């Protein structure tokens, strides 16, 4: 998502600068935003090829998360 947005922003800026057209720059960037939304928002099948396996609730209770000590982050 970030790569698509940055790429469309750079392309929009370059085209707008060369053509000295602010409206064209905004249209290109808006098109990049729409393209990014079309690629990232739907639940595409290739996003689910390697799903994460989460722990069951009972298994998670047997393995508690480590506690972070408040004294370790002090500045001196």
Structure, described:
- By secondary structure, the protein is mainly alpha-helical.
- The chain has a domain of 41 residues.
- It has three helices and no strands.
- α1 runs antiparallel to α2.
- The longest helix has 19 residues.
- The chain is elongated.
- The two termini are 40 Å apart.
- The mean pLDDT is 85.
Topology pattern, helix = H, strand = E = HHH
How many beta-strand segments? Answer: 0
Radius of gyration, Cα only, in angstroms? 23 Å
> Major beta sheet, specifics?
none
> In terms of quaternary structure, what is this?
single chain
How many angstroms separate the termini?
A: 40 Å
CA-based shape: elongated
Low-confidence region ranges: none
Quickly count the helices. Answer: 3
Helix content, binned percent: 55-70%
Kindly report the average pLDDT value. Answer: 85
Strand content: under 5%
Kindly name the structural category: mainly alpha
Short description:
The protein has 76 residues and is an all-alpha fold. The chain has helices at residues 2-19, 22-40, 57-62.
